[in-house]
Design brief:
Order of helices and strands: HHHEE
Shape: globular
Strand content: 5-15%
Largest sheet: 2 strands, antiparallel
Oligomer: single chain
Length: 78
């Protein structure tokens, strides 16, 4: 399901709780979704010419997915 704005990081925590690795959950939220939407040429990764929303977290979400709920910096359309 969809979580309320500001609490949507919980979805990634549930993916990990149900067996995905933190990195798989992060990919599901970025490059995999871009591919499923047919938008992999515009979004889903950081590269020249791509529209990117960037975020930095208090912690490393690639090893501790709960860090996605502790944003320190967000840049839209960076």
């Amino acid at each position: 399901g969809v979580f309320a704005h500001g609490d949507n990081g919980r979805e990634l925590e549930l993916l990990v709780e149900y067996g995905a690795t933190p990195l798989e959950a992060l990919r599901a939220a970025t490059s995999v979704n871009a591919r499923l939407l047919g938008m992999e040429g515009a979004i889903g990764r950081i590269a020249p010419g791509m529209t990117a929303d960037l975020a930095a977290f208090d912690g490393d979400p690639a090893s501790e997915i709960g860090a996605v709920r502790r944003p320190r910096f967000v840049m839209q359309a960076g």
